[in-house]
């Protein structure tokens, strides 16, 4: 991260692009060490070791249906009548093989008896107890799950670097892993700055506003499967900020909002510069200027710090574009980008030509269209709460017309909204 501060003089005059800023951020954030977690707690973390199957899965050849285990050649022509010589429930093990003209009742998941290679579904029989009539010809090998068809003993079934979702947790459970080694998830100190900002249960006095940012940013941290640590609201004095940052420096990352413009009361930069370094970046985006990024130092530790703008839309949007990828990188993710899509714009959008504009949009993936969420001011947080995507409009144009194909960043699952 030393490289970042060295460039501050140069970047002060010129607008950085989003990609340049992100590249600098990502090159400066370290990946965290690993830790062992209980399996369920590892949901959303990145696996830090190859996980191998400790046995074949399934461990024995078994039935995929409730029905009758038979020899394939006995059921190629229907109807056929077979003698029922046993009954195998899931969890039981067959005690004898079957021979020609014989069948065993078998339940889903129960082991196949020796000699049988096919299961006839109960629906294709008369459900007989001593004799069974096979009513539909069944192909040899039907409804049988082979030993090891899912996982082979010794095989790396989930490789290091994989993000653990519900399916991976299930596979790890199958292989008997009650604890797994993962990249530690970042703990993120989140604080708000501003004399006008009050907490949720306080009355709102003249000139005061509620603290939206500490909650929205902490929620976004949690949504990225990291751990928010909510520090309080910091008054607009250097001392208050100093005290707060001294506490925050034990986190893996610090995110502040407000106080990074050039107003008289904006103390973030000078105070951070006492305890580390911070650069003010003017990024060619709307909303979201300015953004501050640097590091606090404490002994050998270097803690990345983001100073996000105070406007609620700007802070959440710059979190999405810059902080979230940095957090994911720290948490060991190799892919830190959201999925993208292209859609047909339904309305006209005007924008400053020299800025990349991120309009908050509603994407309908079925008809391939997108519209904005209405008024797009950087204080209008509803423009984000109504959105399921960002419409990513590049610098170089001052207007986009209905019918144009535009690029989207898919920030959320599409959901029908009433
Ligand atoms: P600042 O970046 O501190 O100049 O703040 C820019 C705008 O964002 C001002 O209108 C602030 O009142 C508002 N703002 C700052 N912090 C917050 C916050 N935590 N929650 C909601 N609005 C805020
Ligand atoms: Mg402020």
Helix and strand layout, with pairings?
Elements: H1 2-6, H2 8-13, H3 18-28, E1 34-38, E2 51-52, E3 62-63, E4 67-70, E5 80-88, E6 102-106, E7 118-121, E8 131-134, E9 144-145, E10 156-158, H4 166-174, E11 179-183, E12 187-193, E13 197-198, E14 209-210, H5 213-223, E15 227-234, H6 238-248, E16 253-257, H7 268-275, E17 276-281, E18 285-286, E19 291-298, E20 301-308, H8 312-330, E21 340-345, E22 349-350, E23 356-364, E24 369-372, H9 382-385, E25 389-393, E26 399-400, E27 405-409
Parallel strand pairs: 5-6, 12-15, 12-16, 13-14, 16-20, 18-23, 21-24
Antiparallel strand pairs: 1-11, 2-10, 3-9, 4-6, 4-7, 5-8, 17-19, 19-20, 21-27, 22-26, 23-24, 23-25, 25-27
Helix pairs in contact: 3-8, 5-8, 6-7
Bound molecules: adenosine monophosphate and magnesium ion (MG).
Residues 192, 194, 196-197, 209, 211-214, 257-261, 263, 309-312 line the site of adenosine monophosphate (AMP).
Question: Can you walk through the features of this model?
Answer:
Helices cover 20% and strands 30% of the residues. It is of the alpha/beta class. The strands form 8 sheets. A 6-stranded mixed β-sheet has the order 15-12-16-20-19-17, with helices on both faces. A 5-stranded mixed β-sheet has the order 7-4-6-5-8, with no helix packed on it. The protein has a 5-stranded mixed barrel with strand order 21-24-23-25-27. The longest helix is centred in the C-terminal third of the chain and has 19 residues, at 312-330. The chain is elongated, with a radius of gyration of 30 Å. The two termini are 46 Å apart. The site of adenosine monophosphate has 19 residues, from α5.
